[in-house]
Design brief:
CATH class of the largest domain: Alpha Beta
Radius of gyration: 25 Å
Distance between the termini: 62 Å
Strand content: 15-25%
Number of helices: 25
Number of domains: 4
Bound molecules: ligand MGD, iron/sulfur cluster, molybdenum atom
Strand order of the largest sheet: 5-4-18-17-16-6-7
CATH architecture of the largest domain: 3-Layer(aba) Sandwich
Structural class: alpha/beta
Length: about 750
């Protein structure tokens, strides 16, 4: 085939929340019979977020489209042999429908659970939430985003009345004066975003990185603060204390745009710099230097990622960083503000449209009577039939085999990625029935009664919402291999079998049209967004209400959106084009005129430091923290199947400081055991001076004996339900005897 004669399809990467734009076209030189693996990635330089740049994961993503690399037929468990064996779709879907129905009939509707994922498109997340509430009638639905963004989301809701990862386009990062980046290793987790930090410095801006490790990201910093894991809350309070003590608060901003300052101020004043130095291990002069860089800049930002958020006090911790922004007038103003770097491909949209335990589409609350009425009307059911809020993700996994006896899982691999994973695996095995829809035979699919092979990113169209709140169109570039169905087709097939012939279309655009109506008037209002508009505009930022003209719409149903200035900034997109005259331009920048609280003011929340759920002691003297490496993605289900990525990051490791290694007599590369109160993992030591001597780091991408989550502590944040992935107490043992 002549590749040049075939149009390139403009689409987006399947993996992280940067949702890099890329082009896909048939690869030159691939002959007959290579179907499914015949796409090649080309740069899409005109797309603004990544401007053509891609990381290795994105560049190699088409490899998983090959039939040999993934599932292409449903599998059902043969009860005589105990093996998963190939089956037809009718048999497989019948078995799933029957498994879910039988459990519901016998134990009640809440005995049937649903677990979703932040990688699912908006359409899938919406359909999955609707399926749980309308078809299954269960309250027991949650998703892996609980492990990802939930603390930042909860804290933003508390402070601003609205949660959108970044309240401004990522490009603003390059134009502010100072970025305080807390617990993000974006050089490895969103490599093309590093360019904005490079440009920041070229423009004379300053970068402060807070990370217990000197990561590739921290190496770029003007100032690197390396706290003991789990002490970010004390750090933020200590910085706020210094801001007050040095007279660097913005009293005018505090008076005009916030509420609750006196209590938050008093809480911060109780955290003395010397005490903060003791808790965090960061010397007072470095604290002062951070305050100086942050406050001297004409505009500044705090950006957090999973480091401070994946803690049992993650919500309060993010709240403390937001307080720092508010007290210094660094929020709700151009080029200033707090933002969270969302993680999964649709981590943002995935938490807006109803797969979260407490939530309805449009970021509405499930316990709000008006929201229930609105969504029930769109769904054609009575509001009273909608179940109430369910359990958070870990609580749901912990209830499997107990109160929840059947599970439909779509888009997650908790056997590898959930905290206290050996226990979670045991709970999954205790289920009466498990159905898994996945692209590959993941470690969790391996335990299922039925495995449904589904289509992937490049094989189906759908929308995702990136870390900036920009709604994007991921276009289909190739047909799925025979034997594979889309998640929407799966849900439609199950709904029909469970007595709902209508309401679950397979066409993503039709689902999106319904999602628009369901979200209308909600905080995350998509009603003014259409596939045609996204295609014409490089994405549309929510909220984007339908119709009514820019100035009026800019007030937004929730009062959340920026005012006239923003509407003018976006007006060029609203004149003519698919958006039509008078269309709302979308909202690249939030909060410039008012916050999304009832009184329009941002709320200070008084927070105080508390220790990690599990502190080190004589038996477990070292802190374990966990995270990611460049070449693997999440549970590794996808990236471990790509040869080049596997070669770059072939397996787990335990990163530890030379002093700790010396003390324990451990050589670089030697396999060591890491033992916590939950279990024991074994992986080679990687000796590195880039980490604190009291801390070890393990990436969590692998199953088996090197599984980091065998060790992690499932202590939950009381507000968000986030587990404490980033801190637990361990000891390190040599394999040839006790250290
Ligand atoms: N290569 C790759 N990229 C990814 C992903 C992936 O799996 N692989 N996953 C995507 C997803 S879903 C997410 S959520 C993002 C996550 O993106 P990041 O948050 O950047 O990734 P992590 O490695 O989990 O954590 C970031 C840093 O937090 C530090 N840290 C550990 N404990 C603490 C602490 O107590 N305080 C502070 N301040 N820092 C701490 C770690 O040393 C680490 O360098 O990445 C996305 N991109
Ligand atoms: N120790 C430790 N554990 C962590 C973290 C940490 O920092 N430390 N981070 C946490 C975070 S932030 C996250 S986001 C989670 C993520 O952890 P997981 O939820 O396990 O995420 P993935 O590995 O991306 O799993 C997605 C699964 O869905 C499949 N899939 C991909 N696309 C589709 C699709 O369109 N449809 C369907 N049906 N399936 C699809 C993939 O093949 C894969 O098996 O891990 C959490 N676990
Ligand atoms: S940075 Fe994220 S979205 Fe971009 S290519 Fe890499 S994995 Fe894909
Ligand atoms: Mo995540």
């Amino acid at each position: 085939m002549d590749a040049a004669s075939v149009a390139t399809v403009e689409t987006h990467c399947p993996y992280c929340a940067l949702q890099c734009g890329m082009g896909l076209r048939p690869a030159a030189g691939t002959g007959e019979g290579a179907s499914g693996s015949v796409l090649e990635v080309v740069e899409r330089t005109a797309f603004p977020v990544n401007r053509g740049a891609l990381c290795g994961k994105g560049r190699t993503a088409p490899e998983l489209l090959a039939p040999g690399a993934r599932l292409t037929t449903p599998l059902v468990r043969d009860h005589t042999t105990g093996e998963l064996v190939p089956a037809g779709w009718a048999t497989a879907l019948d078995r799933v429908a029957e498994g879910l129905r039988r459990t519901g009939a016998r134990y009640g509707r809440d005995a049937v659970g649903v677990f979703g994922g932040g990688g699912l498109t908006n359409e899938k997340a919406y359909a999955l939430g609707k399926f749980a509430r309308v078809v299954l009638g269960t309250s027991q639905i949650d998703y892996n985003g609980r492990f990802c963004m939930s603390s930042a989301a909860a804290a933003q809701h508390r402070a601003f009345g609205l949660d959108r990862g970044l309240p401004f386009p990522l490009a603003d990062v390059a134009r502010t004066g100072c970025v305080l980046l807390v617990g993000s290793n974006l050089a490895e987790t969103m490599p093309p975003a590093l360019r904005y930090l490079t440009e920041l410095k070229e423009n004379g801006g300053r970068l402060i990185v807070v990370d217990p490790r000197r990561t590739r990201t921290a190496e770029q910093a003007d100032l690197h603060l390396a706290p003991r894991p789990g002490t970010d809350l004390a750090l933020a309070l200590g910085l706020l204390h210094l801001v007050v003590a040095e007279g660097r608060t913005d009293e005018e901003f505090i008076a005009a745009r916030t509420s609750g300052w006196p209590a938050a101020r008093a809480a911060a004043m109780a955290h003395w710099p010397e005490q903060v130095e003791r808790i965090t291990g960061i010397p007072v002069p470095q604290l002062r230097e951070a305050v100086r860089l942050f406050c001297d800049a004409p505009a500044s930002m705090v950006l957090t990622a999973r480091g401070p958020e994946q803690q049992a006090k993650g919500t309060d911790t993010v709240g403390a960083w937001i307080n720092l922004c508010l007290a210094t007038g660094r929020a709700g103003r151009p080029l200033s503000g707090y933002g969270a770097l969302t993680g999964q491909g649709n981590g943002q949209g995935g938490r807006e449209h109803g797969q979260k335990a407490d939530q309805l589409p449009g970021y509405r609350r499930l316990d709000d009577p008006a929201a229930r009425r609105h969504v029930a009307a769109v769904w054609g059911v009575e509001p009273e039939t909608l179940p109430g809020p369910g359990r958070s993700a870990y609580e749901l996994l912990d209830a499997l085999g107990g109160e929840v006896r059947a599970l439909l899982l779509m888009g997650s691999n908790p056997v590898v990625s959930a905290p206290r994973a050996a226990h979670v695996e045991e709970r999954i095995r205790a289920l009466d029935f498990l159905a898994v829809a996945d692209v590959v035979r993941s470690e969790t699919a391996e335990l299922a009664d039925v495995v449904l092979p589904v289509a992937q990113w490049a094989e189906e169209t759908g929308t995702t919402t990136n870390l900036e709140g920009r709604v994007l169109l991921r276009r289909r570039a190739v047909a799925p291999p025979p034997g594979v169905r889309t998640d929407l087709e799966v849900l439609g097939g199950l709904a029909r079998r469970l007595g709902h012939a209508k309401g679950f279309p397979a066409d993503p655009e039709q689902v999106f049209e319904e999602l628009r109506r369901a979200s209308a008037g909600g905080p995350a209002d998509y009603s003014g967004i259409s596939y045609a508009r996204i295609a014409a505009e490089d994405g549309v930022f929510w909220p984007c209400p339908a119709g009514s003209g820019a100035s009026e719409a800019a007030q937004g149903a929730s009062g959340a959106v920026a005012g006239a200035s923003e509407a003018v900034a976006g007006a060029q997109t609203a004149s003519g084009g698919p958006a039509g005259p008078g269309a709302h331009p979308g909202t690249p920048r939030l909060f410039l005129d008012r916050f999304a609280t009832p009184d329009g003011r941002a709320r200070f929340v008084p927070v105080t430091h508390r220790p990690a759920d599990e502190e080190t002691d004589a038996g477990y003297p070292v802190v374990l923290t966990t995270g990611r490496v460049l070449a693997q993605y999440q549970s590794g289900a996808q990236t471990r199947r790509v040869a080049a990525l596997n070669a770059a990051a072939p397996g787990p490791f335990v990163e530890l400081h030379p002093r700790l290694a010396d003390r324990l007599g451990i050589a670089d590369g030697e396999p060591v055991a890491v033992v916590s109160r939950r279990g024991r993992a074994v992986a080679p030591a990687r000796v590195s001076a880039a980490i604190r001597p009291d801390t070890v780091f393990m990436p969590f991408h692998w199953p088996g004996e090197g599984r980091a989550n065998t060790l992690t502590n499932p202590a939950l944040d009381p507000v968000s339900g986030m587990p404490e992935f980033k801190v637990c107490a361990v000891r390190i043992e040599r394999l040839d005897g006790p250290a």
